[in-house]
Amino acid sequence: MKKLFIVAALAVVALVPAIAQADIVAAGNSVKIDDDGSANASFGGGPFQITNLSQPNAWLTFCIERGETFSYGQTLYVKKVNTEAVNGGIGGPSPDPLSYDSAFLYTQFRNNVAGFTNGVHIQYAIWRLEGELPNADFATLSGADQTAVNDLLTAATTAAWTNLGNVRTLNLYKDANYTQNAQDVLTMVPEPASMMLLGLGLVGAATAARR
After folding, report:
1. Per-residue pLDDT tens digits for 78-92
2. What tens digit of pLDDT does each residue of 176-199 get?
3. Cβ–Cβ < 8 Å for 89, 65
């Protein structure tokens, strides 16, 4: 029986890298956003580094909507970890559901998958998918940028995701009363099943140790 628990615990440990990818953030937290150090996309986009001021954690993120504003280093407030942007930005409905293709691209970027590591191109592609980079603006990009973005869009279409996976939006506000919309950005949440298995595995390991 002891061996069985140990094997189960070891199997769960293998899930930890996927769980570690998840960001520590919740409604009611305060965060700040900074330039990640790379060249930002035209039209004021990401990638950005977001830092949770309530529960120390930081990750790379992207704007979902254009036309929403914030300042680097400004304290922003998380109203909800959501599946949609609260504002339609310059395109799309309001609220604006996050597309499955955007979730696919962000997941590949966060997992550092080859071909999905250029954050500027990921931002352009997400904006195209969310209706935030119309043809007139897209046409102002260089030919190389347009080709790279179109390749990403093709990859997302080919992947044909039918859900958001672990990707969610953070609805951010400039005030703690949530009256001044700031921006909607991306985050990764843990899989409920993985968290449950991790808990069971740790309990099993503790039981085995006691025995």
Report:
1. 999 999 999 888 988
2. 999 999 999 999 999 875 444 444
3. yes
Torsion of CA 178, 179, 182, 184, to 10 degrees: 60
Rounded to 10 degrees, the C-alpha dihedral 101/102/106/108 comes to 20
Cβ atoms within 10 Å, residue 20: 8
DSSP 8-state assignment for residue 43: T
Evaluate the omega torsion of the peptide bond into residue 95 and state whether it is cis, within 30 degrees of 0. Answer: yes
- Residue identified by tokens 């843990």 is 190
Give the residue from 102, 115, 113 showing the smallest Cα distance to 46.
102
Q: What is the model's pLDDT at position 1? A: 52
Q: What is the DSSP letter of 63?
A: B
What residues contact 105, with CB distance under 8 A and at least 6 apart?
116, 122, 125, 126, 129, 152, 155, 156
Q: How far apart are CA 164 and CA 136, in angstroms?
A: 29
Q: What whole-number distance in Å separates Cα of residue 187 and Cα of residue 169?
A: 6
Give the dihedral of Cα atoms 198, 116, 100, 57; nearest 10 deg.
Answer: 40
Tokens of 164: 């958001």
pTM above 0.90, yes or no: no
φ and ψ at residue 148, rounded to 5 degrees: -65, -45
pLDDT of residue 73: 96
Give me 149's structure tokens: 């973005």
- In 3D space, the residue among 211, 201, 169, 205 whose CA is nearest the CA of residue 187 turns out to be 169
